[in-house]
Amino acid sequence: MCSNLRKIVSLNKEAFMKILLLYYSYGGNTHRAARHIQKILGCDVQEILTVTPYSGDYNSVVSQGQREVEEGYEPPVRPFDKDLNHYDTVILGTPVWWYTFAPAVKTVLSAADWNGKTVYPFATNGGWIGHAFRDMKKACAGADVKQGLNIRFDGDQMQTSIAEIDRWTAEIKEE
């Protein structure tokens, strides 16, 4: 009887496992990638938005981003519509800022409880991923962080093939 109860509990847990696609996008590239992934998985989505949006020309934002990364700054973010505690699996997307994840993502990673969650990171960049995935794994202490997806862009032109994104996303569906 106890064995049957364990099976029922296990099946019920699997039936209610939920996936959240959580991402930050400054210039729109990460947003585009996130929406493609969401379309395939049909999962819930939560965009990370800073309370004060970055403004100014691209070079000014790059300089500000460098300062924020170097200082470990965590900009205030807007409240979420979704509760991270209701999700077992999080697909986590970020642009690469100075070889790591964006400061807005740092704000969320440091505030959330990652214990017991499964995290699939993806990062958009102009050619070099840096140590973004290693940093994300470290920041998601207690989570099972899976192989990340590096999505390369040249300006606003995606260099990573849609087929590669689809393969990575299919692996998430299979697990």
UniProtKB/TrEMBL annotation:
Organism: Hungatella hathewayi
PROSITE patterns given in the database record: FLAVODOXIN, FLAVODOXIN_LIKE
Name of this chain's protein: Flavodoxin
InterPro entries: Flavodoxin/NO_synth (IPR008254), Flavodoxin_CS (IPR001226), Flavoprotein-like_sf (IPR029039)
Domain Flavodoxin-like: 19-173
Top-rank lineage group of the source organism: Bacteria
Single GO MF descriptor: FMN binding
